[in-house]
Amino acid sequence: MSFKQKIPELLAPAGDIERLKTASLYGADAVYLGGKNFSLRAKAINFSPDDMHEGVIYAHEHGVKVYVTVNIFAHNKDFEGLYDYISFLNEINVDALIVSDPGIISIILEKFPNLNIHLSTQANVTNLQSAKFWEKQGIKRINLARELSFQEITEVKNSIKAEIEIFVHGAICISYSGRCFLSLYLTERDANKGECAQPCRYHYRLEEKKRPGEYLPIEEDNRGAYIFHSKDMCLLKRLQQLISIGIDSIKIEGRMKSPYYVASVTRLYRAALDYWKTNKISQNPEKDRLPEIFFNELSIIGTRSFTENFFENPPNQKDMLYDLERVENSYVFAGIVEQEGEHIIIKVKNKIKCNDEIELMKTGLEISSYRIISISDIYDNEMPEANPEQIVKIITEPSSANIKKYSIFRIKKI
Ligand code: SF4
User: Fold this and answer.
1) Given a cut of 60, is residue 2 above it in pLDDT?
2) Cα-Cα-Cα-Cα dihedral sign, residues 81, 87, 91, 94
3) Residue nearest to atom 8 of ligand 1 (CA)
4) Which residue's CA lies nearest to atom 1 of ligand 1?
């Protein structure tokens, strides 16, 4: 049965063309990506103009929209070449530009009035007046700052017509979304240019000047202190609340993340949105719960544990990961299908051996297990095992014929 609940768009990250295609396969309605210039996350692999053009054609053929980030904190010199770049994006028919700088926005509004502008989270919209201001400027969609509570999100959503987009999953900053100089000071990589080395997650120790190498513990555990190490955001349990107030798009963070991560998180949120398409939201928190399988799948994705960030209350110490670097996950990325056929060709991501059981992540939350019968290189030389980045043909039991290109296999950690 289908109810009249408006299901938001699912917006997934695409660090490169492979991840764009993976996100499309696993249920994204839209992807966001950056070019080599004018984009935060400049160190994400990012798209050349040709890749971007190919990506837009591919996405549109698969019913997926493409939003391109032009969200640098621009200085005067950054405007060189900007007009030509936006002309190019216009010509290849991208669906929107994600922008934060008012100077860049003014150029788009004046010269490219047909282009949709989505306001980047980098603009830090934290209140209704600010949202109204941007709406008046002609902004089609506003990504609200991650630092808002559900109550505040609701107040904004109820009072403006512009679309509202909300981050629901992924890494968060301990500063206002990327407006932070820690990385620049410590590593000369500027978070404000998308090059953050995430030093907030480094392990810190105290050293007395005259005793080099003698670290004084400021410890949260015996490996050190993770002073600024925030857990990752996850609003999976809160989707029904976002749906009930008519949020237009939910966004997954992670253009630097692997295709495995992109596939795992995209498929999880796709399945959750599909669940709420067919199950009525009652506004009763006891009843409005996703089945346990969603949280089992969530726990398999590598994480820094989860926080709901500002959703109910401002985060505090329990939302930081003081005692360890990451939560151990039980599965790893085995490989991605490079070529379909009677026997598939995969790019290996973690060592696989004959007789290993690998799991195909299907759309929905289904999994199918396959036993590897044989592995061979592209010249058909058999090999007992394959290592990361090798491209190999595998024969499996049951047959892996019909498995689509860009499908992802995972394997249980030993
Ligand atoms: S150092 Fe940490 S808080 Fe600062 S921008 Fe990078 S990820 Fe965000």
Assistant:
1) no
2) positive
3) 173
4) 198
Closest by alpha carbon to 7, among 272, 199, 264?
Answer: 272
- Residue 97's alpha-carbon distances to 105, 118, 203, 229, in angstroms, are 9, 6, 37, 31
- Centre of ligand 1 to C-alpha 181, Å, is 8
199 touches ligand 1 (CB under 6 Å):
yes
Residue 172: pLDDT over 70: yes
Give Cβ neighbours of residue 334 (< 8 Å, ≥ 6 apart). 346, 348, 349, 350, 352, 356, 358, 359, 409, 410, 411
| pTM given for the model | 0.91
User: Beta strand pairing status for 206-207 and 215-216?
Assistant: antiparallel
Q: Find out whether the beta carbon of 172 lies less than 6 Å from any atom of ligand 1.
A: no
CB atoms within 10 A of CB 49: 13
- Determine if ligand 1 sits within 6 Å of the CB of residue 178: yes
- Sorted by sequence, the CB contacts under 8 Å of residue 214 that are 6+ apart come out as 207, 208
| Token pair in block for residue 298 | 């969530």
Question: What's the gap in Å between 166 CA and the centre of ligand 1?
Answer: 19
Q: How far is CA 297 from CA 156, 277, 329, 330, 395, in A?
A: 32, 20, 11, 11, 27
Would you state the structure tokens that stand for residue 296, as one six-digit string? 């089992």
Which residues, 6+ apart, have CB-to-CB distance to 24 below 8 Å? 31, 58, 59, 62, 64, 406
Cα–Cα distances (Å) from 348 to 130, 303, 307, 334, 336, in that order, read 47, 22, 32, 6, 7
Q: Residue 210 CA to chain centroid, in angstroms?
A: 45
How far, in Å, is the centroid of ligand 1 from the Cα of 389? 30
Ligand 1 atom closest to 201 (CA): 2
State if residue 198 touches ligand 1 by the CB under 6 angstroms criterion.
yes
357 contacts 331 by C-beta, under 8 angstroms: no
Name, in order, each residue with C-beta under 8 angstroms of 218's C-beta and a sequence gap of 6 or more. 204, 205, 206, 225
| Ligand 1 centroid distance, CA of 246 (Å) | 31
Q: Is the CB of residue 200 below 6 angstroms from any atom belonging to ligand 1?
A: yes
Query: Is the pLDDT reported for residue 222 higher than 60?
Result: no
Judge whether residue 38 has pLDDT over 90.
no
Contacts of 351 (CB under 8 A, 6+ apart): 385, 386, 387, 388
Nearest atom of ligand 1 to the alpha carbon of 181: 4
